[in-house]
Amino acid sequence: MEQKFFQEPNAFVKAVHLKVENLVRSLEFYKEVIGFQILDKTEKKAVLSANGKTALLSIEQPENAKPKQANTSGLYHYALLLPNRLELAKILKHFIQLNVRLGSSDHLVSEALYLNDPDGNGIEIYTDRPSSTWAWENDEVAMAVDPLDAKGILSELDDESWDGLPAETVVGHIHLHVSELQKTEEFYGKGLGFNIVNRFGQQALFMSTGNYHHHIGLNTWAGVGAPPTSEESVGLKLFSLVYPSEQARKKVVDQLQHLGYEVQKKEDVFVTKDPSENCIELSV
Predict the structure, then answer these.
(1) For residues 112 and 153, is the Cβ–Cβ distance under 8 A?
(2) Is 23 helix (H, G, I), strand (E, B) or coil?
(3) What pLDDT, on a 0 to 100 scale, did the predictor assign at position 244?
(4) What is the CATH number of the domain that holds 75?
(5) H helix intervals, the chain
(6) What is the SS3 assignment for 39?
(7) 3-class SS of residue 157
(8) Enclosing domain of residue 23
(9) Domain named VOC: which ranges (predicted)?
(10) Cα separation of 48 and 132, whole Å?
(11) What total number of domains does the chain contain?
(12) 3-class SS letters over 161-213
């Protein structure tokens, strides 16, 4: 994992906040299957960490929580980036031992595993190939959906065993269902300051800062015009973007307001919503 993509002067996803139907069930999954540590816990909410200090994921059980709605905007998946291929091998072996249902893909820039939490919230767990090997042409990075070399990954192992998420784990990116791409591209580009690095046909965009392969993915695979999920539905509550300075964040707030988007200040963060009503915290 190359830290440069997750530090100044870049903006990137810092944390994800999910709604779940049953906190006890979700906590068991996130501890035993994914390997998070609990940072803080109340009756209806838990904050989870990989290093015991930094919050990466919050899960919350709303009143009258309802199952995930189909064909709505919201979370496609959030992605946990592991520091190296050995860590991917360790968690892959762990998943195989638990008989977890997995998807997988070689994206050229990265090697990825996919699974769902008990509520159907999508999770990607991946490791990057060195950025020196990524192929760029006209400011777009080559990505694919090729079969994963699982045997090659498992061959990284000697006798190492899995013991939770490594401390260096970060939220590598978030991928969202949106209702359309034109205004969405304007919001994330001219508003939030992310650059397009890959267009996947007419249905998906990948955006980043600092020439990462993507900090944000956006797709219309739930249907053009897909409505937002209800307040009680499980899924994404919000995600948090971190900017390198107050000045950088103020510029983004001004850009969003100039484009006609509402930005509210809540304590030391600003909160806004994209055109599909995905909620975003802007932090420093």
Answers:
(1) no
(2) helix
(3) 97
(4) 3.10.180.10
(5) 23-29, 85-98, 150-154, 182-186, 246-258
(6) strand
(7) coil
(8) 3-283
(9) 12-128, 170-284
(10) 32
(11) 1
(12) CCCCCCCCCEEEEEEEECCCCHHHHHHHHHHCCCEEEEEECCCEEEEECCCCC
